[in-house]
Every structure is written in C-alpha cells, then in structure tokens.
Write a structure and sequence with these properties.
alpha+beta, six-stranded antiparallel beta barrel, 22% helix, 50% strand
Length: 94
Amino acid sequence: MNFEFSGKIWYWRGPAPWYFVTVPEKECREIKAMSTFVTYGWGMIPATVQIGRTKYKTSLWPKDGAYIVPIKASVRKAEKIDTDDTITVRLAIG
C-alpha cells in the first residue's frame, strides 16, 4: 500500500534523539487497518520511505494512536531539511 502526504519535521530529545514526521490521521487509520498483516512486533510497520530524491527502508513507530516516520541523519543532510521544515513523504508499506 502506498501513501503520499506532507508534514512538519519534529525533534524528539529522548535518550536516543531522533527526527520524525507524523503520519496524518486518515493515513494512520488505513495503516492501522492493515497493521496485523505487516507488523513484526511492538506495532512497528516496515516501510520504504522517499523524501525528495532520497529513498530508504525504515519502520513506522506507533505513538499516541498515530504513526511516526523516523528521518535519518543521512536523509536530512542529503535533502537539506531540518526541524520545522514541511516535507512531502512517500510511503510504501510492507
């Protein structure tokens, strides 16, 4: 299943800091409906992500009833993006 959406990058300071973009509510509902078929545990959903010209494999993380997409440092650097930038994300689930 494929999705495309725009969202703002945010930073999580936790013990292992990461940058994320939150999947919009509509897409989260669709992903959740298929989650039991694709999750490998803990609610993690494998996905291929494309931001700009950069494509990478990762997993969507469940958070507060939604899903969040981790944005790798190499992707942020290649695409020249940072916290609070609005980006377009293409997701391929599975």
